[in-house]
Amino acid sequence: MRTTLFSKILVGASFIISTMTISMTTTAATLKGTETLNVVSINGQAIKTIKPVQLPEGKVLVEVRYQDLFSYRADDNGTWIKSEPLFFILDVATQSDYQISTPELASEADAKRFINNPRIQLSVDGTTPQLLALQNNRQLMAGLLLSHAAK
C-alpha cells in the first residue's frame, strides 16, 4: 500500500512539474542574434548559451557586441572588426520571437561605419524589420542620468 501511494504521489508530482515546464516554455519570449551580432547579456546577466536567448516579459536591457573577420585573399589572415558593448532596451511581450541583425556589411569600411553609428534591424514574430539605434556605455549612462534628473 505504501509503495502504491508513493508511486501515485511521484507520478502526480512529475505530471505537475512537466506541465509547469511546458507552460513556461510556451510563454517565454526569445531573442536571436547572428554570427556577427552576439547577445552578451540580458539585464546585466551574462548569456552563456548560444541562440536563442530566453527573455523575461517587460522592459529588458540587451547588451550586444558586433565582430566580424574580413579576409580578401586566401593567404590573408584577415582583419577583425569589433565593437565595444552596445545596448538597447526592448519591451518584451510573452510568446514573441525577436530577431536582430546588422545591415549588410560587405567591407571593413562598412563595418567601421556601422560601429560609429550602430543601427540594427529588429524583427518581431517575422514582421518587416525596423531600424533600431544602439547606444554605447557612455550614451546609455547619460540617458539614464538625464531621465532620472527629469523626475
From TrEMBL:
InterPro entries: UPF0319. It comes from the Bacteria. Keywords: Signal. Residues 1-28 form the signal peptide. Pfam families: DUF2057. PANTHER family: UPF0319 PROTEIN YCCT. Belongs to the UPF0319 family. This is DUF2057 domain-containing protein. It comes from Shewanella oneidensis (strain ATCC 700550 / JCM 31522 / CIP 106686 / LMG 19005 / NCIMB 14063 / MR-1).
